[in-house]
């Protein structure tokens, strides 16, 4: 161990040739981050500067503690939606209480993530299946879009579930603000154009592919600039009652530790847990796919710590929950980021924005921010995944659809809880139904195969049953019931041979089951025998009473057990 | 289908020669049931007649809807303790509100059990491992014993956790009621004697083994009769302030459907769920072991329905939660019960007791009931199981000890929740860590074995990895990480062969993982290949994009894959 101050690994390995990539990527990400941080604060029901605050210290914290070289951390759409939905029942959006709760939520999420990382619980996140996450993201994206329509159109729409908003929509459409709607819809058209057509046009004009795509990504910033200029010149807030961002306080946030109240903590505990879970799963999957592209290693537990500390940093600087963003990280990667130094560059740019540029956002119309959000999240809706999954695996598709419907009809937290419950139910169901096969001998060989699928030889009076999974509490009863049924269906059975080639573990419940099974079979004149027990399982079994009792009935191979029974079969 | 009124299967199959066995068993069970039903009502904090009510209609309901031929249903110790612990925070023991809540709890448990049976969710009960149940029962038995000391000794002891009672014990011992304590301790001595020595003495006197043991089982009734007579003759309630049962209303309960209040329902939902779970697990394990002794079939889902309807019957006749009792069912079986008609006999006897004999219980001292409870539950404490489990499987022993400690230190519900959480954690942990082995060829054969355990041949540049479990969301990431690590540790790898002989399922998450893995490996010049894919999995895989891409890289056997790679290996 070298005696030096602690610093992240990448600092020691930093190479001079990385500087330009990190610098360019950091700048480009900042230009994306400015409109996004303002927009996601709006989505979370918070004042715009809170979005900016959440884009400084968390980036530095992640650079110091995270394990991905290219993940871009900050406010993201789904987590902002979850924040709004967690806080809505507790305080009025925009109030001081609401802000304090958002800060506390970030702190709680940070602590949960950090603890999960220290306790090495990263694997727990894998229990949210791909289908459940996909259904959750698609549902959230649609819910976010519906929620932004009030800003996009300047129309009086409620917050709440998808049904609430859709119900109010027909009436609200006759009360839209034409100027706001014109600005919002123009912004959407421009952003869609910029995303899909601009890169192709630029490429046709001879600009390189990568550069064209990056320029396309900067369109949101351009739309913000144009719309703000238009809005300021025409004083649209006065002349047409268009809702604008208004005064954004300048200056870096003071650091503080949020006050903690037990009752509030209890109300925020579940939302914080769900935000941690979703934030981690989203972030780690982006980080993983980027790391694999460059053959880098990613440690899930270190990722938990990185995002955890980032959220704690957000909390002490007056921000709200953050995580690694998908689009932003891809841009960071494509723009040539080689190390987390790119994140520090972004943080510096964002600080400069906060210190000296916040007054420029005064006239920014909310409709443009809504357009930015909608265009960003609608790309997350993956309806094709539903049909593809339906074709590939019905159970997965049902889990996906239920989570999707749960988010839209019940709410964000309820939706993810539906998903978690579905995932656990699938796990429990699967675990309780191990694959089992009655086998027979392949003629002229020592191989044994499923009698339902192959032409094999069996011995009258002998049932040879192969269990294709470990025996433990979750499946012990099902295995026992299957064996009892087999013996009852074949009243001439004199021997039940259990082939344990796939049994890696045999817990206490399974041992009790085997003891009971042995007694009940022998009471009916059926001998229980074992074959192909693995070394560690055999050692364990021998230490038990059953092992001693079964001593002469344990065979090394199914072949030997068959040969031993053969004389009786033909008697 | 025959057009006839619905009736249970056993009615149609009833044989004349079963009558005497059913009659004798029904009578003997009633004689056990009288003191037990009074005692368990006391344990649940309810008036004595409620225990009697819970011993009439539930028995008839189970006889009509259950699937066990010999299960004896009624109040049992652990469920009575759970009832007391569920109701204690909601109303004062003995109050009218408390009674109404007990009835509602029985109704709720009944509905939950019935629905679980109709939805065929019986398998869920198997997710409580043997060790967790054993720890729970032992802990509950000790808690019950501590809770009964106040009646046994006539001492001022609090209700609550084991620590609360133990803390108050030294002080309470100086305030015991000497007469109550004398009665209680004598009853315990008598009951222990009757249980362990009486059968042996009777056998020495030439009485048959079965008859001797049955007579031993009737000792609690005898102690009730003797103690009541003594208590009445000496008017111990007046002369020595001994707590007695007092007036027990006569007459059968009126049927009624309990009133339902949403807030109360919410408070009782979790306790009702836990009572259903524990009641079912306890009951089905007794019923199962008795059914196996006679080679009868038991349907877990029909059992759920039977116990569910029994609880609903208890509720509408003013009773509290019931389930199948262990000791009582064994006595029923040993006394020769052949069909649920024995239960109907018991129900008739209990009705007669309620109509015409309740005044006989007036002078029954609470200390005798406490003695009955203590002697019954202390046999459930299985400390040997802890040491045996510790030797056989450490993880199981830890789960057992934590559940045991949870019941004693935190409470009954908390204890069972600790157990459920432990069971789920074990399931999740196990599922996320599939067994995997890098294999090589056994020289001169077509067999492949783990390179860590056998002397086998490998090919330079080829890693052959066998996954010993289905691939699905819970283990996909772990398998991917293992493969990535393997390839990084062997930089000369050119081919990664995944042997899928144990893969019975491949869900969407696992498919996505394989797609990502294939891309990431091929980016590093490593070819992904599959071998020994099972038929159903192969069909599914072929329908996906990955299947098409991998077409030429799927081998029937590991042997073929090895042969195909061999020329490259030696290049």
Q: Can you describe this structure?
A:
2 copies of one chain form a homodimer. Chain A has 571 residues and is mostly helical. The first copy, chain A, has 26 helices and 8 strands. At the A-B interface, helix 14, helix 19, helix 21, helix 22 and helix 23 of A face helix 14, helix 19, helix 21, helix 22 and helix 23 of B.
Q: Which tags fit this structure?
A:
homodimer, 571 residues, mainly alpha, six-stranded mixed β-sheet, two-stranded antiparallel ribbon, 26 helices, 64% helix, elongated
Q: Give the termini separation of chain A.
A: 74 Å
Class by alpha and beta content of chain A: mainly alpha
Oligomer: homodimer
Mean pLDDT of chain A: 89
Low-confidence stretches of chain A: none
Major sheet of chain A:
6 strands, mixed
The level of helicity of chain A is 55-70%
Strand order of the largest sheet of chain A: 4-3-5-6-7-8
How many strands appear in the DSSP assignment of chain A?
A: 8
**Overall 3D shape of chain A:** elongated
Q: What is the strand and helix layout of this fold?
A:
2 copies of one chain form a homodimer.
Chain A: H1 9-12, H2 19-43, H3 48-53, H4 57-65, E1 73-74, H5 77-87, H6 96-118, H7 130-153, H8 162-173, H9 178-196, H10 198-204, H11 209-217, H12 219-234, H13 236-240, H14 262-293, H15 300-316, E2 323-324, H16 326-334, H17 341-356, H18 366-378, H19 383-392, H20 394-409, H21 412-432, E3 436-441, E4 448-450, E5 462-467, H22 473-489, E6 495-499, H23 508-523, E7 527-531, H24 535-542, H25 545-550, E8 554-555, H26 558-569
Parallel strand pairs in A: 5-6, 6-7, 7-8
Antiparallel strand pairs in A: 1-2, 3-4, 3-5
Helix pairs in contact in A: 2-16, 2-17, 2-18, 4-15, 4-17, 5-14, 6-14, 6-15, 7-8, 7-18, 7-19, 7-20, 7-21, 9-12, 9-18, 10-11, 14-15, 14-16, 19-20, 20-21, 22-23
């Amino acid at each position: 161990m070298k005696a030096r101050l602690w610093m992240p690994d990448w600092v020691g390995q930093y190479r001079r040739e990385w500087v330009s990539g990190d610098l360019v990527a950091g700048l480009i990400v900042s230009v994306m981050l400015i409109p996004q941080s303002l927009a996601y604060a709006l989505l979370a029901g918070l004042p715009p500067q809170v979005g900016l605050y959440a884009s400084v210290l968390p980036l530095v914290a992640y650079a110091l503690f995270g394990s991905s070289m290219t993940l871009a951390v900050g406010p993201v759409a789904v987590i902002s939606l979850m924040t709004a939905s967690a806080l809505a029942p507790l305080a009025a959006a925009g109030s001081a209480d609401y802000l304090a709760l958002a800060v506390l939520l970030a702190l709680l999420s940070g602590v949960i993530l950090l603890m999960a990382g220290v306790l090495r619980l990263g694997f727990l996140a894998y229990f949210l299946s791909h289908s459940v996450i996909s259904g959750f993201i698609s549902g959230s994206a649609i819910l976010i879009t519906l929620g932004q329509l009030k800003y996009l159109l300047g129309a009086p729409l409620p917050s709440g579930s998808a049904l609430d908003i859709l119900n109010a929509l027909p009436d609200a459409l006759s009360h839209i603000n034409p100027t706001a709607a014109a600005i919002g819809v123009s912004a959407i058209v421009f952003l869609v154009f910029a995303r899909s057509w601009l890169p192709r046009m630029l490429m046709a004009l001879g600009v390189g592919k990568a550069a064209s795509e990056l320029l396309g990504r900067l369109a949101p910033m351009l739309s913000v600039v144009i719309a703000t200029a238009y809005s300021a010149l025409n004083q649209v807030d006065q002349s047409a009652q268009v809702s604008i961002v208004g005064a954004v306080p300048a200056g870096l946030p003071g650091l503080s530790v949020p006050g903690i109240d037990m009752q509030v903590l209890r109300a925020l505990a579940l939302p914080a847990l769900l935000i941690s879970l979703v934030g981690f799963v989203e972030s780690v999957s982006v980080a993983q796919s980027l790391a694999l592209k460059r053959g880098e290693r990613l440690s899930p537990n270190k990722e938990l710590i990185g995002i955890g500390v980032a959220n704690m940093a957000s909390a002490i600087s007056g921000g709200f929950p953050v995580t690694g963003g998908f689009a932003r990280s891809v841009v960071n990667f494509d723009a040539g980021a080689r190390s987390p130094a790119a994140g520090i560059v972004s943080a510096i740019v964002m600080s400069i924005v906060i210190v000296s540029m916040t007054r420029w956002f005064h006239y920014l119309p909310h409709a443009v921010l809504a357009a930015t959000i909608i265009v960003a999240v609608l790309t997350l809706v993956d309806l094709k995944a539903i049909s593809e999954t339906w074709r590939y695996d019905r159970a997965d598709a049902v889990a996906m659809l239920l989570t999707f419907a749960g988010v839209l009809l019940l709410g964000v937290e309820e939706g993810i809880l539906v998903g978690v419950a579905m995932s656990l139910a699938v796990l429990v169901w699967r675990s309780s139904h191990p694959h089992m096969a009655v086998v027979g001998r392949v003629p002229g060989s020592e191989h044994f195969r499923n009698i339902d699928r192959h032409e094999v030889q069996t011995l009258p009076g002998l049932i040879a049953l192969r269990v294709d999974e470990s025996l433990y509490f979750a499946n012990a009863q099902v295995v026992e019931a299957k064996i009892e049924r087999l013996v009852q269906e074949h009243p001439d059975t004199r021997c039940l041979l259990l082939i344990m080639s796939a049994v890696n573990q045999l817990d206490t419940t399974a041992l009790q089951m085997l003891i009971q099974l042995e007694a009940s079979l022998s009471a009916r004149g059926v001998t229980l025998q074992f074959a192909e027990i693995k070394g560690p399982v055999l050692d364990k079994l021998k230490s038990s009473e059953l092992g001693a009792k079964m001593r002469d009935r344990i065979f090394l191979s199914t072949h030997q057990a068959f040969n031993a029974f053969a004389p009786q079969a033909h008697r």
